[in-house]
C-alpha cells in the first residue's frame, strides 16, 4: 500500500497535513483508505497563538464542515477540491481593538489505485537451424511448461512469439538462435466484477503476478544451472542460453484512472483518477 507522503504537502508525525497560503496542496489517497487529517492552517501559523479561531470546510459535495478534516474509506467520487476558511482575531495590546483575519487554504485530493502489474519477458535458446519443425515444438513445449508453472496463481502467458536469428559472435561463425518473447498477466474470469467486489483486488492480483515472475525466473535459473554447471552432462542442441533471460514490468490502469507524470510527478507510478472525472 502506497502512503500519501509522496505528494506536495508537509506532514507531521501525527499525520496532519497543513495548508499553504496561495498554493493548493495536492494529496493522493489510495482507494478505500483514510485520508490524512487536513488542518485548516499553515504550519507557520500553527506555531503561533490564534484567538477565537473558527474553521469552515467546503468539499466537492459543498457540505460545510468544521475542525480538522479526515475522509474515511476514500472513493473516486470524493476526489476534488477541499477549501477551508480560517477566521481568527488579532487584538492590539494598547487599544484592545479586535481585527478579524480570514485565510483560505485549498487542498486537492486525488483518489488513486495501484496499477495492475504484468511482465514482458524474453529468453534465447540455441538451435540447430532456423528451418524445420523442432523450433515450433520447443516453443510449444515451453509455453505449456510456463503456463503450468503459474496456473495456480490465476496467471497466464500471453502474446508468446519467437523468431530465429543468426548471431555472429567474436571468433565464431554465424550461430542460429531462437529469440522468444512473452508476457505474464493475471487472469481472473469476470475480471471487472471480481475487482469491484474485492477492495484489495490490485493487491491480490499483483501479489500473484510477482510470485509468477519469481517462479519463471527461478525456472530459467535452474535451466542455466542444469546445463552450465554439470560438467559431466552433454549439452543438447537446443537449450536455454545462460544470462539471456530478461524482463520488464508493465503497468496498466483500470478504466477511469491513468498516469500523468507532468501533473502528478510526486506520484508518477500511481493510477490517479482522471481529471474529467473530478470535474464531472
Automatic annotation (TrEMBL):
Coiled coil region boundaries: none
Keywords, ordered alphabetically: Cytoplasmic vesicle, Glycoprotein, Secreted
GO CC annotation terms, alphabetical: acrosomal vesicle; extracellular region; zona pellucida receptor complex
Chief location: cytoplasm
Keyword Phosphoprotein appears in the UniProt entry: no
Domain Zona-pellucida-binding protein 1/2 N-terminal: 25-113
One GO term of the biological process aspect: binding of sperm to zona pellucida
Domain Zona-pellucida-binding protein 1/2 C-terminal: 253-273
Localisation: Cytoplasmic vesicle, Secretory vesicle, Acrosome; Secreted
Record-linked InterPro entries: Sp38-bd, ZPBP1/2_C, ZPBP1/2_N
Superkingdom of source: Eukaryota
Family affiliation: Belongs to the zona pellucida-binding protein Sp38 family.
Protein name, entry field: Zona pellucida binding protein 2
Organism lineage: Eukaryota, Metazoa, Chordata, Craniata, Vertebrata
Amino acid at each position: 500500500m502506497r502512503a500519501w507522503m509522496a505528494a506536495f504537502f508537509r506532514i507531521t508525525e501525527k499525520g496532519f497535513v497543513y495548508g499553504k497560503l496561495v498554493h493548493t496542496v495536492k494529496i493522493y489517497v489510495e482507494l478505500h483508505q483514510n485520508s490524512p487529517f487536513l488542518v485548516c492552517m499553515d504550519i507557520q501559523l500553527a506555531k503561533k497563538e490564534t484567538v477565537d479561531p473558527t474553521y469552515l470546510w467546503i468539499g466537492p459535495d459543498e457540505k460545510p464542515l468544521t475542525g480538522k478534516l479526515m475522509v474515511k474509506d476514500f472513493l473516486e467520487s470524493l476526489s476534488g477540491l477541499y477549501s477551508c476558511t480560517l477566521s481568527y482575531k488579532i487584538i492590539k495590546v494598547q487599544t484592545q481593538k479586535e481585527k478579524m483575519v480570514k485565510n483560505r487554504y485549498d487542498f486537492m485530493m486525488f483518489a488513486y489505485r495501484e496499477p495492475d502489474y504484468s511482465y514482458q519477458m524474453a529468453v534465447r535458446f540455441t538451435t540447430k537451424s532456423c528451418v524445420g519443425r523442432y523450433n515450433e515444438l520447443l516453443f510449444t513445449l515451453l509455453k505449456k511448461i510456463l503456463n503450468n508453472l503459474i496456473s495456480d496463481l490465476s496467471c497466464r502467458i500471453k502474446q508468446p512469439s519467437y523468431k530465429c536469428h543468426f548471431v555472429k559472435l567474436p571468433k565464431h561463425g554465424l550461430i542460429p538462435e531462437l529469440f522468444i518473447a512473452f508476457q505474464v498477466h493475471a487472469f481472473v474470469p469476470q475480471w471487472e466484477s471480481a475487482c469491484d467486489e474485492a477492495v484489495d483486488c490490485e493487491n491480490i492480483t499483483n501479489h500473484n503476478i510477482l510470485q509468477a515472475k519469481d517462479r519463471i525466473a527461478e525456472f530459467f535459473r535452474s535451466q542455466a544451472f542444469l546445463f552450465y554447471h554439470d560438467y559431466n552432462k552433454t549439452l543438447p542442441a537446443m537449450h536455454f542460453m545462460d544470462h539471456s533471460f530478461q524482463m520488464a514490468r508493465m503497468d496498466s490502469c483500470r478504466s477511469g484512472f491513468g498516469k500523468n507524470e507532468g501533473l502528478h510527478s510526486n506520484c508518477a507510478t500511481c493510477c490517479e483518477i482522471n481529471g474529467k472525472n473530478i470535474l464531472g
